[in-house]
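Subject: for your reference before the review

Hello V.,

The reviewers asked for a structural picture of the protein, and I figured it would be easier to keep everything in one thread rather than splitting it across files. Below is the amino acid sequence we used in the manuscript, unchanged from the supplementary table.
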Amino acid sequence: MPEEVYTQLSWFRRERVAKARVMVVGCGALGNEVIKNLVLFGVEHLVVVDFDHVEAANLSRSILFTRGDAEAHARKTDAIAESIRRINPSAEVITLFGDIAYEVGLGWFRSVDVVIGCVDNRWARYCINRQCMRAGIPWVDGGIDGLEGTVRVFIPGENCYACNLGPEGLKDLRRRIPCSGIIRHNEAAGRAATTPVIASIIGAVEVQEALKLIHREQLDSGELTSLSGRMFCYEGQHLTTRTVAFKAYDDDCPVHERWEPVISSDLDTRCSVQACLNELCQLSHGDRPQVALADCFVDFVESRQTGEQVHVMCPGREVESRLEQTPLRGKLLSELYQHEYRVLDNDFPYQELNLAQVGIPARDVLKVHTEQRDLFVELKMER
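And here is what came back from the structure prediction:
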């Protein structure tokens, strides 16, 4: 890295940036720009998260993808990691292929200094915000659409995405349209969903704000000013920018719950439910532990009309895809009764299943209810 380029920035600490750990959620056009800038600035420890694959349509606005990636339908996270290593072979890149809502454990958030969101829907932003609040980690959000873009910063104790949504926003929370769908829709209509220019601008502002959060002392002294509590808005068609107030922090908001103190354990997702409960029983001194599941576990579904049952044995998020291989394929979920479990305890009938099979992601933090108190137990890193 050309260290001398940044010596003119009085607040920039090259060693601190090199040691900083940054998570980037979303590896589309915006994520490409954010990651490129982070690596060029000298960030050497990255966690990148996405659940999508590279398509030909991504290539016009995603600098880190190649035509070979699109032809191979490569995971975006893998393609990103390969490009990062070409730019800086010494960079440490951890790739997490999965949905931020259920498949990225809280321990990953606890392991980084700042999170940068490059996602395209409210539900994903809500999930990032919830995990960052639990871990006590600040995060930067960016959004782009056509020639417009926004950037916001959320710091636990100061500003909360969920509190800013309002009643209508919360109602619309789970409506999510993936970028790939937006791209195909716009291409069919002869339009571009977004441009490399707007991704570059918003991605650059996101990285600038993340670097400020890494230099917390300069923020606290007033040498730097964070965007926390405000929203940066850019409109490219008429070239206007503005910054508006965007701050809300309701003390009663349940999303603010900080999960601490966190207890380390020898558990991982390969452990059976029974082995997990046995260890938690020791940690809680026999207080009948119950593990709250972020997603329910479904053992069977039943047709409301005919009473026909099908065993699926999977987390709730996988039920629809599992049904495709059964006689109930094509049925709407509203036509089916779903038998589910929301906690793991001694009454859970499938004690032989491991934690991954019931939907708990690697390096997660388990919220354990006991008769006396709640415990927060982190699963160990899996090798």
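For the response letter, the relevant points are probably these. Confidence is low (pLDDT under 50) at residues 177-183. The first helix runs from residue 14 to 19.

Happy to draft the paragraph if you're swamped.

O.
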